Automatic annotation (TrEMBL):
Transmembrane segments: none annotated. Keywords: ATP-binding, Nucleotide-binding, Transport. InterPro entries: AAA+_ATPase (IPR003593), ABC_transporter-like_ATP-bd (IPR003439), ABC_transporter_ATP-binding (IPR050763), P-loop_NTPase (IPR027417). Belongs to the ABC transporter superfamily. Residues 19-255 form the ABC transporter domain. This is ABC-2 type transport system ATP-binding protein. Residues 327-361 are annotated as: Disordered. GO terms for molecular function: ATP binding; ATP hydrolysis activity. It comes from Halobaculum gomorrense.
Length: 361
């Protein structure tokens, strides 16, 4: 048992992880029909960090989250929240944890925004007056201050979404799980929320575990990503290192002068992964490391092809995810066609290195 003080549990010593999961397993059903939803999972999450939890449908994410929240009782393993074994003191443990599942939370639509925050603070065991400043700050940061005295039912969908997040944070939980936090938000709303999540983690010592199929959310806000597949953790690393592990860089060139014969010739000499001689202008995409890219430019120059456009195509988190889990696009929604900062419909990241004038940059 954790030591207690007259005011309740002693604060966790510095360096204690916000969450520590050890050898956690949960099975549903029995015999041949049994499903190992979570299978011997271990990891810990540092305080003040934002961690992404990814996995295709059925990977075990929800079961894992619910095991931490205490709504699913694991078969084996331990969960510690701020050093406290969840099985030892459920009330004290769960005062520190809260969650928004499936992009929403049951806010009280007849109550105003501020009344909801006060209500959820009370439910979290906190006197609402003692956290009034925190509520003001949350409302400010999430652009809800003007709506503080508006009943929730009168808010737009995006604002209701932000309200859900504010109410999860209203009670002062130190560890929060957010499942699809940007669902229903427009581009600007999603950007605000991503920025504020990072700020809350950095300034308020909040630890966040985010589960989302939107890889931009994960890339933007997470220090680290845990990827689950079939109940097990298949990767646990920083976004940067996960991206670095996928050695799949490509160059895509476009030119009016790219004839079918030239494309055929390139196929014999390079790893051409995509070509469209009928496009306007025609394009060819080559898997390449740095040297092969120069060889490609030399070959095009020798064939008297002036480039209209060159894009480098870098692996995205979506590519990493697909490679690790074998999940197709059905497992994640990824970037939608026409996304502001993704390659159309592929989830890959493109950067233009030669503009329309054909000049090298
Ligand atoms: N109450 C339950 N009874 C029986 N099987 C269950 C139950 N809850 C989950 N499962 C099974 O456990 C496995 C993991 O499910 P879980 O909901 O944890 O996955 P997930 O990663 O959250 O998926 P999604 O992204 O679709 O929400 C699945 O095969 C699911 O069918």
């Amino acid at each position: 048992m954790a030591p207690t003080t007259p005011d309740g549990p002693a604060p966790a010593p510095d360096g204690t992880p916000a969450l520590s999961v050890e050898e956690l397993s949960k099975r549903f059903g029995s015999g041949g029909d049994a499903v190992r939803a979570v299978d011997d999972v271990s990891f810990s999450v540092e305080r003040g960090s934002v961690v992404g939890l990814l996995g295709p449908n059925g990977a075990g994410k929800t079961t894992l989250i619910k095991s931490v929240l205490g709504t699913v009782i694991p078969d084996e393993g331990t969960v510690r929240v701020l050093g406290r074994d969840a099985a030892d003191g459920r009330r004290a443990t769960y005062a520190n944890v809260d969650a928004m599942l499936e992009g929403a939370r049951n806010d009280y639509w007849r109550l105003t925004v501020r009344e909801n925050l006060r209500y959820f603070a009370t439910v979290g065991g906190v006197a609402p007056d003692s956290v009034a400043d925190r509520h003001d700050r949350l409302l400010d940061r999430l652009d809800l201050a003007e709506k503080a005295d508006t009943p929730v039912r009168e808010l737009s969908r995006g604002m209701k979404q932000k309200m859900s997040l504010a109410s999860v944070l209203a009670g002062g939980a130190k560890l929060v799980f957010l499942d699809e936090p940007t669902l229903g938000l427009d581009v600007e709303g999603s950007r605000t929320l991503r920025r504020e999540l990072r700020r809350l983690a950095e300034e308020d010592d909040l630890t966040v575990v985010v589960s989302s199929h939107d890889m931009r959310v994960i890339e933007d806000v997470c220090d680290r990503v845990i990827v689950m597949s079939a109940g097990a953790v298949v990767a646990d690393d920083s976004v940067e290192r996960l991206l670095g592990a996928v050695d799949d860089y490509r160059v895509r060139v476009a030119s009016e002068e790219l004839s079918p014969a030239t494309i055929d010739d390139l196929r014999g000499r390079f790893d051409v992964v995509d070509a469209d001689a009928g496009a306007d202008p025609p394009t060819v995409e080559v898997r390449t490391d740095g040297d092969a890219a120069y060889d490609l430019f030399d070959a095009l120059r020798a064939a008297d092809v002036t480039l209209d456009r060159v894009d480098t195509v870098e692996p995205s988190l979506e590519d990493v995810f697909v490679r690790l889990t074998g999940a197709g696009a059905g497992g994640t929604s990824g970037s939608e066609p026409g996304d502001e900062d993704g390659a159309p419909g592929t989830g890959r990241r493109r950067a233009t290195v030669v503009g329309d004038d054909g000049g090298a940059r």
